[in-house]
Design goal:
binds magnesium ion; Rossmann fold; eight-stranded mixed β-sheet; 9 helices; alpha/beta; binds adenosine-5'-triphosphate; about 20% strand; about 250 residues
Length: about 250
Amino acid sequence: MKRLVTMGRGGSGKTTFVSLMTKYFIEKGETPILLIDADPDQNLSEMLGIDLKEVGKKTVSELLVETFLESGGTTVGVPPSKRIESKIWELGLYEGQNFDFMAIGTKFIEGCYCLPNNALKNALQGLIKAYQYVIIDSPGGLEHLNRRISSKIDDIFDIIDPSQKSFHHVERAYKIANEIKIEFNNFYVVGGNRVPEDLEAEVTKRTKLEYLGKISYDKEVENYVLYGKSLLDLPETSIAYNSVKEILQKAGY
Ligand SMILES: Nc1ncnc2c1ncn2[C@@H]1O[C@H](COP(=O)(O)OP(=O)(O)OP(=O)(O)O)[C@@H](O)[C@H]1O
Ligand SMILES: [Mg+2]
């Protein structure tokens, strides 16, 4: 089982990348996959055509609120994992044909993600299925790194946009990941769809990290997102999909 994580600044294309990566693994028959939406904005479900509410599933945050706050319990002094882990698998896991899905959900307590993150982290330690991949879609920025939902990762894909800030993001993300001792095998840089073609040499020079290429701009992706269609249903000919395929093949997938 491999653990893959996307990172990057807001709007760089992380969630699109996760969706197209999922499509690729499904088409290669490398399933089942567990997808984790660690972004409180919850865009991944939409890009995959899943409505958690509709299928009666809840986010980790919702389950915590039910367990602790609404049932009159207290979060003080109770290891949350003890009471929430089984609920996450039972009530929070959407099970699809090729992939399962769970979401951390919206802000639980103002300013603090500790509980939902710990709950999710503990639940993940007791994985119940033999997943081929666990893929985590992160929110924009770096703050989430400190939450360490997964401290053992195979590959990190940092999606950049064409900005100075984006290069700073990569440098800091790499530094922080090392500082807080997240174990990873590869830290790859991937160009988002707005990155110019000729940036490759620049990226490697500036970051000293391996650049896997860029995700092509694709009008079709934009349309699918606009109309809430699942990116998994994009045709084989999709430009963005094929660029993601090449990127992943370059990383050995
Ligand atoms: N390859 C692409 N071609 C065309 N449009 C794209 C492509 N990738 C992303 N987009 C557009 O850019 C928007 C942002 O992409 P996406 O949601 O994947 O970014 P993100 O990094 O996950 O954002 P956030 O930080 O908000 O989570 C999408 O709504 C989509 O319309
Ligand atoms: Mg996103």
